[in-house]
Amino acid sequence: MLKPRSVLIFIILLIIGAALVDLSGYLWPATVDLTRFKIPLRRDLSLHYGLDLQGGLQVSLEADMSGIPEKEKDRALESARAVVERRVDFLGVAEPTIQASRSGNSYRVIVELPGVEDPEQALLLIGQTAQLDFREATGEGENQQFVRTGLTGKDLARSQVDFEQTTSAPQIALQFTSGGAKKFEEITGRNVGKSLAIYLDEVILTAPTVKGKISGGNAVITGQFTLSEAKRLVAQLNAGALPTPIHVLERRQVGATLGAEALKRSVVAGLVGLALVVFFMIGNYGRLGILATMALIIYGIITLAIYKLLPVTLTLSGVAGFLLSVGMAVDANILIFERIKEERHWGKELHEAMELGFGRAWDSIRDANLATLTTVFILFNPFGWSFLVTSGMVRGFALTLGLGVLISLFTGVVVTRTLVRVFYR
């Protein structure tokens, strides 16, 4: 069994390490870069805020599954989520959240983009199906129609923004896969002198006349593009087309000012609650209450460090989970101290009463926290079971509550017990 002094030294070292992490970004840079010492570690230890605290855009997209076989709908939804995720990557948004959600016959992709500066541009990027296809002309004059050739966006290897040499107008350069290059060569070969139309989501972009067979697998889309439109289309083509049409079901935009105000109120509420807890503990348990307050401060230091190291994206629901876990951390100390009071009432010496109090309160503390962790597991839904909730707000609450419960078990039992043993030796 470890001696109390050895455990105390470990706790002190843990506090120092956690405090160094907590103060990163305030007293020194938040980025830890050990690559200069030939250690492959580079981490950003900034505290990450969610959409409701930082401001940004939340969009609910509903997928139209009417043309998808029943057995393929779940796969199509996951594919749509993956495509949206790749498109969001082009926005450069920090800590985006993209989740697939199914409820009955409703198939949705929930997108949260904290700190996004241009919500309309973001909506255009993530919500357009972006199904590209090439069509050849049949008939002449008024009877001319364009029919599909079988060459689509799936045959693209990559695309990029290019500029026309004489006018410097933005255009889109396409590079086909080896299979796509063969198709394109065959199509242009049989359509010399005819129009070859390029469609995006059933809308014609351009219909140039083919001057000769084109080999090499390269093509260019010209049109009245602005630079931002060309960049958006390139991002969509490179991310892939959505497997099914989607439309915006709901959108919610949170301003940065509103998010900052929500964070400020959350901090004030937390400090007021913490002050009340401290007064209660010291008023009821005296010196033991002071030690419990010290353990609670240590709990806060360690928890903040864990949030930065994982990292955890803080949301309002996450802050609520943290505040609830603070109450549970104090609850463990109350159970222990009340048990110590009972042992003293039965005539036990102080040191014996303390050891018995910690030992006999452990069963109640363990069972209560196991029940809470079971609820946390259900709310967090780590395996994405469709019959359980998948809301980001609920999962954020569950994550901070679960971490808080685990850390409070350490601070409420190990830290408090060590402090009591050291100060009452």
UniProtKB/TrEMBL annotation:
Domain (Protein translocase subunit SecDF P1): residue spans on this chain: 78-137
Pfam families referenced in this protein's UniProt entry, alphabetically: SecD_1st, SecD_SecF_C, SecDF_P1_head
Gene Ontology biological process terms, A to Z: intracellular protein transmembrane transport; protein targeting; protein transport by the Sec complex
One Gene Ontology MF term: protein-transporting ATPase activity
Record localization: Cell membrane
Single GO cellular component term: plasma membrane
Membrane topology: Multi-pass membrane protein
SecDF P1 head subdomain domain ranges (all copies): 148-243
Keywords per UniProt: Cell membrane, Membrane, Protein transport, Translocation, Transmembrane, Transmembrane helix, Transport
Segments forming domain Protein export membrane protein SecD/SecF C-terminal: 248-422
Residues annotated as transmembrane: 7-28, 266-283, 290-310, 316-337, 370-390, 396-420
Domain of life of the source: Bacteria
UniProt function note: Part of the Sec protein translocase complex. Interacts with the SecYEG preprotein conducting channel. SecDF uses the proton motive force (PMF) to complete protein translocation after the ATP-dependent function of SecA.
Record text on subunit structure and interactions: Forms a complex with SecF. Part of the essential Sec protein translocation apparatus which comprises SecA, SecYEG and auxiliary proteins SecDF. Other proteins may also be involved.
Family to which the UniProt record says this protein belongs: Belongs to the SecD/SecF family. SecD subfamily.
PANTHER family assigned: PROTEIN TRANSLOCASE SUBUNIT SECD, PROTEIN-EXPORT MEMBRANE PROTEIN SEC
Protein's recorded name: Protein translocase subunit SecD
Species annotation: candidate division WWE3 bacterium CG_4_9_14_0_2_um_filter_48_10
